[in-house]
Structures are given as structure tokens and as C-alpha cells.
Amino acid sequence: MKPTVARKQPRKHEASPSHSMADQHESIDLGGPTVDSSAAARHSWFPSPPPPIYSCTLTPELVAKAREELQEKPEWRLRDVQALRDMILKEQPNLRTRLDDAFLLRFLRARKFDYDRALQLLLNYHAGRKAWPEVFQDLKPSTVKRVLDLGFLTVLPRPDPNGRYILCLRPGKWKPNDYPFVDNVRAIYLTLEKLIQPEETQVNGIVILADYTGVGMSQASNPGPFLAKKVVSILQDGFPIRIKAVNIINEPRIFKGIFAIIKPFLKEKMAERYILHGSDLRSLHRNIPRSVLPEEYGGTAGQLDMSAWSRLLLDCEEEFVVEFCQPDPLEGVVLPESMLFEGEQASGHDDDTFRGLRSQLYYCY
User: Fold this and answer.
1) Which residues pair with 160 in a beta bridge?
2) Angle subtended at Cα 318 by Cα 315 and Cα 322, rounded to the nearest 5 degrees
3) Could you tell me how far CA 105 lies from the centroid of its own chain?
4) What residue ranges of the chain have pLDDT lower than 70?
5) CATH code at 20-134
6) pTM for this model (two decimals)
7) What gap in Å lies between CA 78 and CA 182, rounded to an integer?
8) What's the fold here for domain 141-319?
């Protein structure tokens, strides 16, 4: 029996010493996609994911941080993974999901090693794909190349002093006539999938820097509450990543209306992590130091390079094909009624809400 440990309401569970239960479920893939080591070598600025057979890649400092912040005990790490694996096989035997150690660790770390919450997050992760097929069908970097080419997003090459990579979004680069809004979501999701691979990110989390230069009424009113709710739900409750701060810069007056659409769907803890800087770069530098920012944002890390992250994603095309271009992992799975995503039936109410919020947008504009 697993030793008693002070945790955040984990389910008491006895972990078996092997993958014997998995052997009885041939439809479930224990392993993850094969990582192209040559592609990783071409992008040495970004850390590689853990090896296929898990071996901890965390530094002693990050091991200590994971112990303090995530309740991760190195001596029990794989035992906890096995406990979650056994829960999946017992409670969701038809779920076609990766069961390898590195993959399941993402969910345990994101929920501070609470087995039940980690399992719920895993189910939400897969439910998101089923609820939003426009985003997840045939999801691979080549399908969002135009988004990347236009400079909608990138990842800055240097993490901040807390080891957090910075996802830089520039919504003003998107014009509704260029391509559908969901393509932006697809590019963001692919980026998050790549960011979460290294164990450093799983422990440290990420920071978002959103530059609203050029955002006008056409961009602000396009997604609407229904899509905004889906995006927020996926990021908050359907993806195993820790978003530690969202820095908004150069926001126009209309951003008050944009935030009015988003805020009702944010948990209080996440809403508190939104920091509005306006055009005050000194305010930004108090949260993200100049040493990791490009010159465009008053930093000293050279000019903003939008191509490096694009090349990294495109070089991982095969990896994403294996991960996402497969049969529906929820086929034959019965999910509880309290699942995260409510489906299209909620759109009627959201349309009414949108009409009210659209008037707020015009007022702010």
C-alpha cells in the first residue's frame, strides 16, 4: 500500500508495480510519438522532451521546486504515475490515450499530484478535441503555416528568470478576411503542445505576452462569447499547462469590451493574473525583464524573430501527425454529464449574450 502523504485530496490508490493491466488493453497506446532527434538538434535553443523511456531531466533546483509547489516526491513519482495509469484503465478502459510515464506526468504536475483531478484533466483534454472538431481535425503545423507566416504568435527564445518561456501573441496581425479565427486557436494549441513537452515547462509554467497593437472592431467582435468560452475552457481546464501570467500591452480602449467577453469564463485565480500595461513599457519590464524581451518591447535581446518558432513547429510535422491525425480517442467512451464542454446547444444563449456585449464593444470603441 502506498505510504500516507499530505496531499491535496488525492484518491487513495494502490499502484501496481508493472504495466500488466495495460497489456490487457491492446487498443491503448502506452507510448508517445517518436521524437525526431535531428529536428531537436536544429533547434538547440529549445529543450528536448523527456526520453521515450522516462528518466527525469529536472535539475536539482527544479526537483526541489516541484516538491514545494507541486507536491511531487521524486521517490514516489513513478508510483504515482502507475496509480493514475491504473485508474484510467479501470475507469475508462475504452479511452485511447497515451499511457507513457512522461505524458501522464504532465497531468499529475498540472493538478499537484491529485489523482482524481489529474484524471478529470485528462478526460477534459480529450473531450476538448471531440467538442471542437474544427480545431482538432487534421491538426498539424502545415495547416497553420499562414498564421505563423503572418506573425500571429511566436515563443521568445529566452525564458524569464523563473525559467518560464514566453508565448508572444499579436492579435492585430490577424484580419478576419485572411483566414478563420479557429486557425489562430489551432496555432496556439500546437504551440502549447510543444511547450509542454520539456519537464522544465511542466514545473515552471509559461507566461503570455499579448500585444494588441492594431486590434480594432473587426478582430474584437469576431470570436464571440461561445468561441471565447471554448478557448478559455481548454486553456483553464483542458490542458496540462500552468499559465503564470498574462501581460497585455498596447491595448486599445476597445479592450475593455474584449475583456468583458472573456472575464465571465475565467476563474478568479486566472483573472488576477491578467496585467494591463497599456503603452507603459516600464510597467511591462517590472514583470518581464528587458534582458529576455526583444527591442520592439524595450528589451535588449535583439529584434523579434517570428521565424524560429515557426521553423521548429514545421519541423515537427510528423510528430503532430502521429499525435493528432488518428481516430477519435473518445469513440465508445461514455463521459459524465458534468463534462467541461457543453456543446453547440449552448450557442443560443451565447448569441443573446453576444448581442449585449457587442453593444459594449461599440461603446468602448
Assistant:
1) none
2) 145
3) 15
4) 1-43, 220-226, 326-365
5) 1.10.8.20
6) 0.81
7) 37
8) Phosphatidylinositol Transfer Protein Sec14p (3.40.525)
